[in-house]
Design brief:
Elements (H helix, E strand, L loop, with lengths): L23 H6 L5 H24 L3 H12 L8 H5 L6 H8 L3 H10 L7 H23 L3 E6 L2 E6 H17 L1
Antiparallel strand pairs: 1-2
Length: 178
């Protein structure tokens, strides 16, 4: 029985220098047990090599097929400059990505490329809240007509002294009832 197996399609045969001998002593001596076996091995190897060369000529190689599929799958790189990103800074990251038609990871990658370390939505929201508070305070100061400001979280009410006194009475009653 010959040690050479028939070549499998798509698999290149190993060169003689890389093939292992079935017995370690044969590898050291440099020849196999009988001359007829070695002749058969050489013929089988040459046939397999010829078959492999013919397959290469008729069908495209695996690497060429992979290159064409990769080029089909790879999309063009999306380029956004800072001015385009500024139009969606007021939105959360997820909403901004949807508006631009890309995924969140791509938007983060674009931001890193443009040296934007953190999406500015939260900072802008904080600034917006501060501006609203300052406007409320300014309105109170400009009113100056005997009204008193009552801050309820983010809401500021302008109440006259009598309205403020009535509200204080109502609040104290509701606290006593509990």
């Amino acid at each position: 029985m010959s040690s050479a197996s028939p070549p499998r399609p798509g698999v290149s045969p190993l060169p003689a220098s890389l093939r292992r001998a079935p017995w370690p002593l044969q590898a050291m001596s440099g020849h196999s047990g009988s001359s007829s076996d070695s002749d058969q091995d050489e013929v089988a190897l040459s046939d397999a090599t010829n078959d492999y060369v013919e397959q290469e000529e008729t069908a495209p190689s695996d690497s060429e097929a992979e290159d064409t599929t990769r080029s089909r799958r790879r999309r063009q790189r999306i380029h956004f400059d800072v001015e385009q990103l500024q139009t969606v800074y007021h939105l959360p990251l997820k909403t901004a990505a949807e508006r631009l038609g890309i995924c969140e990871a791509a938007l983060k990658r674009i931001c890193r490329r443009n040296h934007i370390s953190k999406w500015p939505y939260r900072q802008l929201s904080s600034v917006r809240r501060r501006i609203a508070e300052l406007k409320d305070r300014r309105a109170v100061m400009l009113a100056g007509d005997g009204t008193n400001p009552l801050n309820l979280g983010t809401l500021t009410l302008l109440l006259t002294t009598s309205q403020l006194a009535a509200l204080n009475i109502e609040v104290s009653r509701s606290i006593r009832l509990r």
